[in-house]
Amino acid sequence: MSSSSEQETSDDAKGRSGLEDVGRRTREAALQLSALPTSARNEAIEAIAAALEEAAPDILAANLADREAAEADGISSSLYSRLKLDETKLRGEIAGVRDVGRLPDPVGARQIHRELDEGLVLERLAVPVGVLGVIFEARPDAVIQISSLAVKSGNAVILKGGREAVRSCQAIVAAVRHGLEGTAVSPEAVQLLTTREETVELLKLDRWVDLIIPRGSNSFVRFVQDNTRIPVLGHADGICHLYVDAAADITTAVSITVDSKVQYPAACNAIETLLVHRDAAGAFLPAAGVALQGAGVTLRAAEDARAILVAAGLEGIEPATIEDWSTEYSDLILAVHVVESLEAAIAHINTYGSRHTDAIVTEDQAAADAFLARVDAAGVFHNCSTRFSDGFRYGFGAEVGISTQKLPPRGPVGLEGLVTYKYVVRGSGQIVATYSGDDARGFTHRDL
Fold this sequence. Notes:
Blueprint: H1 4-34, H2 38-54, H3 56-72, H4 77-83, H5 87-102, E1 110-117, E2 120-128, E3 131-136, H6 141-152, E4 156-160, H7 166-180, E5 190-193, H8 196-202, E6 211-215, H9 218-226, E7 240-244, H10 250-262, E8 271-277, H11 278-294, E9 298-301, H12 303-311, E10 318-319, E11 333-339, H13 342-352, E12 357-361, H14 365-374, E13 379-382, E14 401-403, E15 411-413, E16 419-426, E17 446-447
Parallel strand pairs: 3-4, 3-6, 4-5, 7-8, 7-12, 8-11, 9-10, 9-11, 12-13
Antiparallel strand pairs: 1-2, 1-17, 2-16, 14-15
């Protein structure tokens, strides 16, 4: 009789074998997809949109079941907000699929066209990355966005959603694969994993998967980054700031503050810290405090800011600690701090921020220019809400995620972030020996 440890080893091997097969089939589909013309990929995008429309009742019913189960498990309000997919949101996501279909095709774009010598020509061409492994918590709408972006950019994708969204993800992927059945794109180009164990095994598929894109909490993204040899694109934290300068228009500043925090507090581009110049604090903070508390926001203020808010008659202002400057709440909580200068605001952001999105409100163009130049973030905004940091709002059609790494792609990652490039050289019998030695032939290096 086999021991329990032997049985566990056997089960693990079977799991790895099954996922290896998924990886192999996805890779084959990716190679087929990468060779298809733009027209074939666009037809597949429209087929996905039509299939999602047809399956809408099933998708909405599945999402309702997910939400009911999640509520019974005591899901947090921020995660519940990400999980929810109602009729309006689904309709918008389907429209986004069609928007992706209308975007210019990034595949095959010629980035370099250069004659090395007569009859010897170099090209650098944009090509798909290959197989994407996308892991996310809740967010069933991410399945729709990522599937459409992957197909449009010639990539296959293995999706792994959170357990709280498993029914929604299954219904969406079933519709997507059904739509692809009548197209030149193999349904094997879109795969779905459903268990936590498969997440760990996916991170080991460096033979088949070219890029991992995690979307979720900072602890979750850190786990992914620490447990794979596959390149990871994403961000661990969304600690975004709004700085209200001495020269800010108070009405504008209050409006932008409320939108940046309240419009969707669970989003990674919602602000977590509000910085206020001391010369604007007396007029701005009472007005902003009333508006924010009226929207249900809990304020955690440093001593100077708290004194102003309390003196203005606001109650329930919690004292801030140094930990608040490094916290992503993803909820209706906002840390508030009064700073002495623009330089102090920039230093605070570059110390505690996560290089995601930071904004300034000011009528002083020189102050704005200094902020935009010196804040180290993927997105730096002037006189507008940080919530504009989004692939759809940037005109990318959708996004697979937001990257805070310094190397590209950076910020919201759409189609252009899902292609890499290859060098193609066409010759007519040339050999390197001709270009070496005392009588070496020279290169022309002429751009065509």
